[in-house]
Write the structure tokens for this entry.
Amino acid sequence: MESELLEREWRLLLKADPAARAALAATNPHAAYEAISWSRNDLLDDPQMPHVGAIFCAWAELEDLYEIGRTSPNEFQAIVRIAMDRWLSRPAVQSRAWIERWVTDTRGVVAARFKEDGTILDGKPV
């Protein structure tokens, strides 16, 4: 049962690959943002999957970094490129550990940038 769920979840991840490729190919930060924002909802096609919520949140937090973060656009694009490169470099064999590591790493980088740079919501000076 668990292996079937993981296989379904792994196939679901493939739906976001075109967006990840587009974000990597983006020539500017706004194009990278657009690439990740239009595909995030594809990850909700099968909401019963064990990691879908966490993956969705990680993608959404990357968007938040652009929308409400005070991180420079170039730094945002660099963070997105790293996250999307890791996304596309996942192993061929399904792995819970890989999914959990990608989510933890991505969310951790975003949280660190928010802590360092602030957001438009925290009143931190520009």
Observations:
- The helical segments are 2-14, 17-25, 29-39, 52-67, 73-88, 96-117.
- Residues 2-117 form one domain.
- The chain has one domain: 2-117.
